[in-house]
Amino acid sequence: MPSASRLRRKVAIVGAAETELGVLPDRSMIQLHAEAARLALADAGLTEDDVDGIATAGTTPADISEYLHISPRWVDGTAVGGGSFLMHVGHAAAAIEAGYCDTALVTHGESGRSRVGMPPGDAGPSSIQGQFEHPFGGWGPPSMFSIPQVRHMHHFGSTEEQFAAVAVATRRWATLNPRAMMRDPISVEDVLNSRLIAWPLRLFNCCLVTDGGGALVLVSEERAHDFPKPPVWLLGRGEATAHRSITFMDDMTEWTPAKQTGASAFAMAGLDHADIRHLMLYDAFTHVPVYALEALGFVEPGEGAPYFAEMHTAPGGELPVNTNGGGLSYTHTGMYGMFAIMESVTQLRGEAGERQLPNLELSMTHAPAGMFSGTSTLILGNL
Amino acid sequence: MAYDKPLPEPTPETQEFWDGLKRHELRIQRCLDCDRFYFFPRPFCPHAGCRSGNVQWETVSGRAKLHTYVISHRGFGGFADDAPYVIAVVELDEGPRMMTNLVEVEPTPEALPVDMPLEIVYDDVTDEVTLAKFRPARG
Ligand SMILES: [Zn+2]
């Protein structure tokens, strides 16, 4: 069977940009997609006329094609939640290598805060969630993504204080990022004193809710050096889906599919944990990066929460995590995965300003697609 | 007062589960080849290595353990007045897990130790729909 390793360092991100972020009631969801797309293309010195491949989630490739008035010859509408864009990067690499397209555009835009031009949300009453979850009063991710955490606390002895420390460590990075929405330092006590949302979650255990967009442009190795910015290479990727409804997550103490996606990404890249010293771990809530760190194998099962509490991931720590300030303090439009990739690219380009990690060559980005279900991992590099 | 919370809409493969609750029976499916129960309803065994289509509906005990939960301090629509309320995943004594609300118990972490024994309460929320809720086991 062919190995994914043959796609290692064959495709590069050569354009990457975010829109203005925050509260943007003057812009619709699809407008944010298009704005991000045009900024990312400009970053690469290109225009819509150069795009012949499109991938998106939250809307459809057809909607994007119509709005940008393009007719791409490769399309990917994989839409399994916030990590879909990581999957798109992996798919785009295969498509470019296969000759399905030359210049792939991956777009995200979401009016998560202002809800301008957003598609309707929930699955209907005859869906599995509609029948077996919605009657019990779950009201979205804070009340549902959080369901496994109590089992983790019971099984491993992880504590509310340790999960609070995830928000503290992440906020320390945000203080170094002028684009972050929340920049005032916070303490574990501040998190524990913030108002209850869905115990064990309190307000500061939860991500922000914002508007914004981001986009990426990918091309082949042959063209990768023909652009204004240095290429950021795709070295490894993994993806998986499992349950849709959190009730049917097989093991509530671990992020099982992430074990596979992490191993796949490492195997494709020919790298191991010791090679990685920058991690972007999608942090919709404070327990999510804990589960990620454990499933990806950077710490043993159960050691993730203490690891964060010891501030190893904060500025000055041995393993910087979520250096933009994360979904907790930077921005979180709803499908945050694009911004996790974007920070990996920013760090690998050396454009991260005060929070720049010196001599960084590799970065891992990891995101759920849904709630611990769909999962995707990327390893990016600049050499 | 009219019931104003989300209601399930049964599908052909789940109808027996909902009809059972209406009769105050908890009906789930068991695989006749690997002898394991499973939930949610579907016409084949989902267990890895089995995948048999040889399955049947059975009435089970309604006894369970508290697997994990949140205490929601916000509620929307018909749940607005219920907060704080417990959204739990329980593990039936027969093995499968399901989401539910815990009733007849204080919605505090102290009153809700993980793995506490529970028993089913049939909540006839409308003339058509009965929901399976759970409370601390009494005997
Ligand atoms: Zn079976």
Describe this structure in words.
The complex is a heterodimer of chains A (383) and B (139). Chain A is α/β, with parallel strands linked by helices and 383 residues long. Chain A has one domain (4-118, 207-381): Peroxisomal Thiolase, Chain A, domain 1. Helices cover 32% and strands 17% of the residues of chain A. The longest helix of chain A is centred in the N-terminal third of the chain and has 15 residues, at 29-43. Chain A is globular and about 50 Å long. In chain B, 32% of the residues are buried. Chain B has one helix at 15-22; strands spanning 27-31, 37-38, 55-59, 63-72, 85-92, 97-101, 117-124, 130-136. Chain B folds into two domains: 10-60, no CATH class; 61-139, Beta Barrel (OB fold (Dihydrolipoamide Acetyltransferase, E2P)). In chain B, the strands form two sheets. A five-stranded antiparallel β-sheet of chain B has the order 6-5-4-7-8. Chain B has a three-stranded antiparallel β-sheet with strand order 2-1-3. With 139 residues, chain B is mainly beta. The longest helix of chain B has 8 residues, at 15-22. The radius of gyration of chain B is 16 Å and the shape is globular. Chains A and B meet through helix 4, helix 5, helix 6 and strand 5 of A and strand 4, strand 5 and strand 6 of B. Strand 5 (196-199) of chain A pairs antiparallel with strand 4 (63-72) of chain B. The complex binds zinc ion. The site of zinc ion (ZN) has 8 residues of chain B, from loops.
